[in-house]
Amino acid sequence: MVRVLSFRSLRAFALACLVAIAASILVASSPRTAGADTYPGLADIAAAKAAVADAQTSVAQLDAAIVSLENASAAAQNEAAAAADRYSGAKATADRTQLESDAAAKSASDAAASLATARANLAGVAQQAYQDGGTFTSIEAIVGASGFQDAIARAEDNDLAAAQLDAVTQKVKAAQLYADTLSDFAKKTADAAAVAANDAAIALAAAEDAQRTAEQAVADAAATRTAAMVRLASLQNTTVALEQARQQGLANERAAQARAAYEAAVRAAEAKAAADAAAKAAAAAAAAAASNSSAGGTTGGTTGGTTGGTTGGTTGGTTGGTTGGTTGGTTGGTTGGTTGGTTGGTTSGAPQTGAWSSSASQGQQAANYALTLMGTQYVWGGNGPGYDCSGITYAAWGSAGYRPSRTAQGQYNSTTHIPISEMRPGDLVFHGTGRNSGAIYHVGIYIGNGLVAEARTWGEVAIVRAYDAWNVGDLIPYAGRP
Prior knowledge:
It is built from ten helices and six strands. Mean pLDDT is 75; it is low at 1-37, 135-148 and 300-354. The strands form two sheets. The chain has a four-stranded antiparallel β-sheet with strand order 2-3-4-5. Strands 1-6 form a two-stranded antiparallel ribbon. It has helices at 7-22, 42-53, 59-131, 138-143, 148-235, 240-308, 310-348, 360-372, 389-398, 408-414; strands at residues 416-419, 428-432, 440-448, 451-454, 463-466, 478-481.
């Protein structure tokens, strides 16, 4: 016999489903809109212009202004890259929520069709009951019968018709509730998709604004630098060409200092990785020793209890061995090791050795696929045929059966961090403003032999270069392994 759920039970079940499904909807928060305060290089460029125009500015001050111009130009370009990365994330969210909305709309449409069918069935059953003269009461079935067997048959037919009508009615109620639930869910997902689409449009406008600002900043910085060279040549009674050569020498010195700082950061990363590995091994050894101690205490206590007296031996051995060994070993080893290692690692961006889920062959596959995308045009939020920086790495790892985050910052946050000196093909190489892992603006993929494949910036095509040949001052000393 088929059990028909009550309307109240169906409603409770449907509402629970709606709550669970609605909780999975991601309504993106509005992305940061580009504004004057998001372009850290502009004030420095203005100050450098003023210094060059000031007749009292000294050679040392002009040298400092040129350094400031270099830094300001880089800062504006980094902001443009970060804005592009934010747009990539907003676009990915918009694409995902639109797919969810489309699927919800299809489900709601199917549910509405099922409801129409259920209503038609109910109408058919009701019509048949009317044509048959309706259902009898129990008294009518007995009084109107020609005999005992006829009375039994009439009663059974009456019960069957009533049960059929009730079952069809319950199905209509269930179909109505289901259709209403999916209709509400479809509206929620449509609203979420609209919000995400608007956020993506805002993020795109911000990325375009940031790119225009960066291009203007670079042009202004270059013009100001040229004017500074002329002033310096005049102050030192030399030629512009000689002054340019002097400035190049100073730039080379700054590059050497940045390289030395980067190499020191790499050594620190390696030392941190070694220390974390040693701490993890020590914690594991302590836990193993505690486990062995616990096993010994339990065995000794039980044996003593069996030989000399069940109650005394078992109680003393089990309590002393198990409690002391297990509690002391597990709590001290696990808590101390996990808290110290995880907290320290997360705060400093240290590696989570052995935590990655991808294989070396997957990494090689990702690297190989990335090479096939070289020469493609840079496109904000692009997933083909043009790509942005995280689009290249997303597509590359997708070809290897792994789907990372769609933004450079998200890819850094979701990967295991390996000292960059230990990276293998497929690992991700990141740049963050001031080598800050919380301000990632670019990602490339390591392909081996000291090279990365990347889509760097608007207006350029994807290229292969030495992994440490660009913006070494912002190069994160950890690679990300999916």
